[in-house]
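Feature request, filed as a ticket because there's no other form

It would be nice if the structure record came with a short human-readable summary line next to the tokens. Right now we just get the raw output. Example of a typical job, pasted below so the devs can see what we mean:
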Amino acid sequence: MLSTLRRLISRNPLKQMADTDRKVLAICMTAAFVFWLILNLSQEYSIRREVTLEYIVDPERVLVGRMPETLEADVSGTGWNLVWESLVPGPLPVTIDIRNRDNLRLTNAELRQQVQRRLSSGALAVDNLGFESVTILTTPKEGKRVPVRSQVSLSFANGFLAADLPILEPDSVTVSGSTDELDDIAYWPTEELTLTGVNNSIKRIVTLAKPAEGLTLSRNEINYTLNVEAFIQKDIEVPVTVVHAPEVDSYRINPSTVSLRVSVPQTAYESINASDFSLVADLENLRNEDGRNSVPVILQEQPDEVISVFFETRSVEYYLIKE
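Raw output as currently delivered:
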């Protein structure tokens, strides 16, 4: 392979030419390239440019509906002019001013003229704008206060749970826009956010969902606070209270107490005791099972801090004591 390459290099005719001849050849090739470049760049070409539309409205008014925000335009001209145009960064910005008026009829011809003014050369032309004439309407801006709804999804680490509901500050936001659009808005959501393996209290800023065109929010963020605690289990012996008992001298239930296994936040462990719970055996629900008077046990009261309650004894036996 190397021998073949050396053989080709050794046969290079330029090596056998005099210096003067090589210089003449280089000048001729350069001249040919310049002539070719001039010839080709003098012809007509077309490029694609992005156009962005910005609407300027009176502060007390808003647009009705959604107006186009971006367009694609075909720009044509000679290669020389298009070279400079292609070097301009970003899209072509066009401003539509509808201040001090309720509506504006924007035609294809008018928009084409505005795009034309943004081009780098007057020799360039806008051939295809892809825009149909449209009437731009505005309406007085109204405000509506709506609650904020959290879209934060949480999954906790083992042994941890939320001690209470999340706190959103502020818990409401003012949405401004046209009356027709505001009628359908009952709340405003936050952006969706997923937090996994949570094992500490949360205090962070959450972004509100981005409003649609024509709507504005009084703020874009809220404070999100959630108290997260480790929870532990506690066994509590609670007496069973009999209700709707017959008027007899004495009776007895067995068992008279039921063991509850409760899951509570660690901070509430010491403060929760048997008096915070109410277990009831209602004799109106008395039933006979295998010759025994059985009464279901119902948990009627428990502290708000308790996360869950489990007890195996779901019924007690009721006995009348005869003297």
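Something like this underneath would help us a lot:
Residues 142-226 form a domain with the RNA Polymerase Alpha Subunit; Chain A, domain 2 fold (CATH 2.170.120.40).
The longest strand covers residues 228-243.
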